[in-house]
Known about the structure:
single chain; mainly alpha; MetI-like fold; 2 strands; about 0% strand
Amino acid sequence: METRTLKRGQRDGQFAFFLDIPALLLTIAFILVPIVDSIIKSFQTYGVRNIISGKPGVWNDFANYLYLAKTDAFYMAAVHTFSFVFGVVLVQFVLSLTLALILNTNLKGARFLRSVMMTPWVVPTIISALIWMWLFQPQYGLVKYLVQVFSFSTVTDFAILNNPSTALTGVAIAALWKQIPLMSLLLLAGLQNVPQDINEAAMIDGAGKMRRFLSITLPYLSPVIKVSISMSIIENFKQFPLFWTMTGGGPNNATTTLAVLSYREAFVSMNLGTGSAVTTLWMLLMAIVVFFYNRLFRIQDMG
Length: 303
């Protein structure tokens, strides 16, 4: 009997592996191979001549990385990337959790909001960027009109995407508009799985709303928070379409992130070696951030 069960388990495992083969092949072909190729090119001099002639790049050891270390472009791009990721993820989590808590009540119209809240998320990123470029348009944009109305026309020059000190904030607003719905829906699903009997028992024992939220709701919501924030970190670390469409990395490189810098080096300056070096460091930094974030969550769970 045990032998028959073992053989059946082996057949099920082999069948499952057979079903996974297409996904594995696609992962290897379109993810692992490009990553390895990019890492190899980051140690080579690979420019326009190599692209045209098809000749392999010349190995230059760490010349591309030394070049990045000598310039301020990579440092500033890293600062802009981390500032954008930290700001967007923090504000996104606070607003998403607030919205999820509201939608989890019997508030009138909550069901309607649940049905339409995903609209920004399903809009393609390029379309979202164009929408917000129109809203931020310095001559006839809706945002400028509202600023003039509420400031009683005392503010006449309002161009958020054309100002180096506010351009990153403008892109962050567009990112928040697109990403908040998905995180809100994930947190809402987590809130609906919180056991109500425990909540009611705590309420009978005299625990207030804040106490019940901190001691009951948040612990049960912890796995969903971990996943949703991890997704947000990765999404914003690799954010490129919003930046390139809305600002192109400007003005004065104020919105040049690692994604934009990598694209510029590889496909504008046609230096695939340097662009690959930026991409490699970019992936490494993202992996480090996600690793320490998960590590922090694991320590809290153990505590």
